[in-house]
Amino acid sequence: MDNGIRYVGLDVHRDSISVAVRNQAGKLVKEAVIPTQEAALLGWLRELRGPLHVVLEEGTWAAWLYELLSGRVAKVVVCDPRKITRHGNKSDRFDARELADLLRCNRISAVFHGETGLRSLRELARTYVVLTKEQTRTMNRIKALYRSYAIPCAGQSCYGPKQRTTWLAKLPHPALRERAKVYYQQLDSLRSLRQEVRQCLLAQGKKHKAYGNLRGIPFIGPMWTVLLIAFIQIPERFRTKRQFWAYCGFALETHSSGDHRWVDGQRQRSKKAPLVRGLNSNHHHILKWIFKSAAARACAQAGPFQDFHSGLVLHMRPEMARLTVARKMAAIVLILWKKGERFDAQRLKPQAA
């Protein structure tokens, strides 16, 4: 009996999981539809013989399934569904079959999942980011309410508790004032929760061994340092700085065609430059925001990065110079974290990152 590797594709949904199993030759040996339940999935996998390599798409249930299957099967891979090109009919059954076949052919673009001892820090960071977004949305709702009645509300004064009575009196109808009071109560609650989570996040992040080295980088503040640690987790995920740039949204997307031609029977590479289509859209938005914000501050204030930026603007557009500074800062974070070293301004070479 063939006890070779079994490639298991899981197409996961709220109520059901479509499962397809292929052998090393690519033959479909088994498939089924089971409930999205721990007992049902583990019981079904126990019936399979041989080492199991399981693949599923990144999504709502990916973290749960990765933790559930890790240690119970030989290999678990979470793939990026945006990098899968589908052909022909689409259904849960076809998707599970295709995932199993792509894993067998090693054509899966894996998404990082793994327990690195930072689970609590990651969850606190995600909570902090969500509360920050909700607080911003609530503040925007308050200003939108005033602006809808042509009441100027520039600045931050309309949010302060001491001036709320004055601002509420500017609204023409009692119903509008009641609505604004609800928004203010929501804002106060979010601010309190966000500050509480912020303190816990900073306290836990400062315990990480990389905090001191990363905190020494100019214009990377305490909160940004902790968020970098929480979302990057381990720098060894990225073999080179270019891989890290792509993760942060700083990689250039280029398109080319007709790259080679034949001259006198010999192949030559075309000298036509590839077309640049901008930065990659598939990236971690929080990390991109951190490095872009830090680069903007670094270019505007005195320091080693401002000198680096001044040399760049001599031969490139200002926005490209700021992008280069952001890429430089990202590369410094990665290399200092990997080597366990501290930032040294004397070693910041005046060259493009």
Characterization of the model:
This protein has 12 helices and 9 strands. Helix 11 (304-312) crosses helix 12. It starts with 5 loop residues before the first strand and ends in a 14-residue tail after the last helix. Strand 1 (6-12) and strand 2 (16-22) form a beta hairpin. Helices cover 48% and strands 14% of the residues. It has a 5-stranded mixed β-sheet with strand order 3-2-1-4-5. The chain has a two-stranded antiparallel sheet with strand order 6-9. Strands 7-8 form a two-stranded antiparallel ribbon. The radius of gyration is 26 Å and the shape is globular. The protein is α/β, with parallel strands linked by helices and 353 residues long. The protein has helices spanning 38-46, 62-69, 92-104, 119-147, 164-169, 174-205, 211-215, 222-232, 241-248, 285-300, 304-312, 318-339, and strands at residues 6-12, 16-22, 28-35, 52-57, 75-79, 252-255, 260-263, 266-269, 275-279. It folds into 3 domains: 6-104, ATPase, nucleotide binding domain (Nucleotidyltransferase, domain 5, 2-Layer Sandwich), CATH 3.30.420.40; 119-205; 216-255 and 281-347, no CATH class.
Any key phrases for this structure?
Nucleotidyltransferase, domain 5; 3 domains; alpha/beta; two-stranded antiparallel ribbon; 9 strands; 48% helix; 353 residues; globular; five-stranded mixed beta sheet; 12 helices; 14% strand
